[in-house]
Specification:
The chain contains 12 helices and no strands. With 307 residues, it is an all-alpha fold.
């Protein structure tokens, strides 16, 4: 399906809702900081299934899923994307509950710039001068943080790599976004359910009592599935350039949560690096808008020539 030429109000509502919900997710995860991250991820997987399954039935797309289950190559590709997204979730939750939300925000800020780099190196996509400048500025910001700490910002780099790899592999998965996510959840389900059963049998689980903790673990499924479904549908109804700019909502909210709510400290290196990242993103956004305008002009000119 080709990218739309305009942003529909419904598409904008879906996309903005997805990014805002992701922006609030650290507040939710922080309430579960006493629960091991692996257990939280297992509940995210388990309780996502009823939601994505219901959406698939409502859309009458279950046939796509059943067909996918009979294709070994497609299953192998989905297993890879499932592994990547689960690792990304695990790193993210670990970062939030261990007071490293600023590094999580950094990872998601630099991700689109790293995706540009991947496109140039792996897919031989041509970069504009503005995009090259944005990638270079982001790289310099990472070097500043590395120099100050004496090591790479591991959490930010790991989040960036796993999400970028997930997005790249997801592009190659010949399934619709809802069907693909449902398949990923199904593939992860045996591991999640087995782990939770083992925790319950050994008395180490945090689920079962009629209390707020159990309610929060149950709610981890909707908190995972609903933003992803919103995003999948919003991306279909908005321009790529719009999605490219809206994606900064989430890391900005994570950044504000880290500083204003969790009390994480902006050390001197971060006070230099984050403005460098923001400047890089501003350059990148301007290039997206410019490219979108050029494509619209080219289409208008082509239409005039055909008339």
């Amino acid at each position: 399906m080709s990218a739309p030429d305009t942003d529909s109000p419904r598409g904008l509502a879906y996309a903005v809702s997805a990014y805002v919900l992701w922006g609030f997710l650290p507040l939710y995860m922080k309430l579960l900081e006493h629960v091991p991250p692996v257990e939280i991820i297992a509940h995210r997987i388990l309780w996502s299934l009823p939601i994505v399954g219901a959406v698939l039935l409502w859309q009458r797309r279950q046939g796509d899923l059943l067909a996918a289950l009979r294709q070994p190559r497609l299953l192998a590709m989905a297993a890879l994307t499932a592994a990547l997204i689960s690792v990304n979730w695990l790193i993210y939750v670990w970062a939030i509950v261990n007071d490293q939300a600023l590094d999580a925000a950094l990872g998601y800020y630099i991700n689109p710039l790293f995706s540009i780099f991947l496109g140039a190196t792996l897919l031989k996509e041509k970069l504009s001068r503005a995009q090259i400048a944005a990638v270079a500025l982001a790289g310099a910001a990472v070097l500043v943080l590395t120099w100050q700490a004496g090591s790479l910002p591991i959490v930010a780099i790991a989040l960036m790599l796993t999400w970028a790899a997930y997005a790249l592999c997801k592009k190659q998965l010949p399934l619709g976004p809802n069907q693909g996510f449902t398949l990923e959840v199904l593939l992860l389900l045996p591991f999640a359910a087995g782990f939770l059963i083992w925790l319950s049998a050994t008395g180490q689980g945090h689920f079962g009592a009629l209390d707020w903790q159990t309610a929060l673990l149950l709610g981890a499924g909707p908190a995972t599935a609903i933003p992803l479904l919103f995003y999948a549908n919003g991306a279909k109804l908005t321009r790529l350039s719009t999605i490219g700019i809206l994606q900064y909502i989430s890391p900005t909210m994570i950044f504000l949560c880290a500083v204003l709510v969790f009390g994480e400290v902006l050390d001197p290196a971060r006070m230099i690096a984050f403005p460098m990242i923001w400047a890089a993103l501003a350059i990148y956004s301007a290039s997206l808008i410019q490219q979108a305008g050029a494509r619209r002009r080219d289409r208008r000119n082509a239409t005039k020539r055909m008339q």
